[in-house]
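We give its fold:
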Amino acid sequence: MLLQNRVHHQLLGAPLSPHKFIGALLASAVATLAAFSPAQAEVTLPPSLVIIDTGIEAALPIFQSHLIYEVCILDWYLCPNGKNFQEGPGTATLRAEVSNTSGFDHGTQMASIALNQYSDLRFIMIRIVASNGYGNRMTVTNENVGRALQWVLDNREKFNIRAVSMSQGQHTLLAGSKYCPSIPSVQKNVVQLKGAGVGVFFPTGNAGDKKRIDWPACIPESIAIGAINEDDVIAKYSNMDFALTDMYAIGNLKAVGAGGLPVNSSGTSVSTQVAAVQWIEFVTKHPTAAYSQVFMAFRTSGKLVFDPDFRFGRKIDLASALAKYESRIVN
C-alpha cells in the first residue's frame, strides 16, 4: 500500500474511542507524578514539531531560524548522498526544479501552514518521498513511515520533540469493521511515541467516507484529525469514523508553495498541521503536562461541530483546552 498527499489539491462531549479513552484514563492515574518527573524538569529546549512529508524549500525566508534539522528517509537510494538515509542540513531540501512538480511542494505548504499558525515554531522536516532524475514522484511504502517514526523515537530527547504531524495517508483498507491495516513497525512506534508523551497526528483523509478513515489515522493510539470549513461545519470531503476521529480543525488556509508563491491549501492535511501546532503551543506553555492531561484537555473542551447529517465531533481549540487544564491546576 502506498501513501498519498492528503491535500484536497455527554452530548456534552463526543465520546472517546474505547481504545483511546481507556489509554487516557490509565495514563491519568500517573499524571501527577509524570508532571513532576526529573527528566521533564531538566528540559531546556522549547518543544519542537516533526513534519513528515515530501520535503521542503528550506531556503525560503519564512523558514529561517524555524527549521532546526532535516532528515531524508526514503525507499530509494535517492537521498543527496546516494543512499536511502541521510540527516543534517539540506537532506530534506528540494531542488527548485523538483519542488514545482508532482505535488512536491506539499511539504513546503504544510510547514508554512504550521509556522503561520505559531510564529515561534521550531520544526524538523523528514522527507519520505523520493524523486527520480526526471522529477517524477517515486512510491512510498507504509513501512517507510515506520522508519521515520523510529527516527523520531531515537531523537525525541535530543530535540525535545513533543508532536509529529504527517499529512499523508491512504484509503486502501480492509473489509469489515476492523478495517485498519496492520503495519507492525508503524503501530509499535506510534504506541511508543504516545507512551513517551509525543502526540502523533494523522489526517482522516479526503474521500468523503463517513464510516472509515485513512491509514495510519485509523491506528487507535494516533490522533486522527478531520476537517471543518470556515463556518465550523464538518467538511463534506472529510472522512469520518465516530469512534476513531479524535478532533477537527480548519481545513482551508493560505500557504506558501513552490518558489515561495502564495497558494490556497485545503483538506485534512491542513487541519492536521493546525491541530499539531496547537498541541505544541500547549506543551510550550505547560511543558510538564502529561500526555493524558493534554489530550483530555483538548478532547473535552472546544465546541461540538456537525455535518449536514448531524454527525458530530469536537473542534480542537487551544484557548479552551488551556482554560480547562489551568482551572484544574488551580482547583
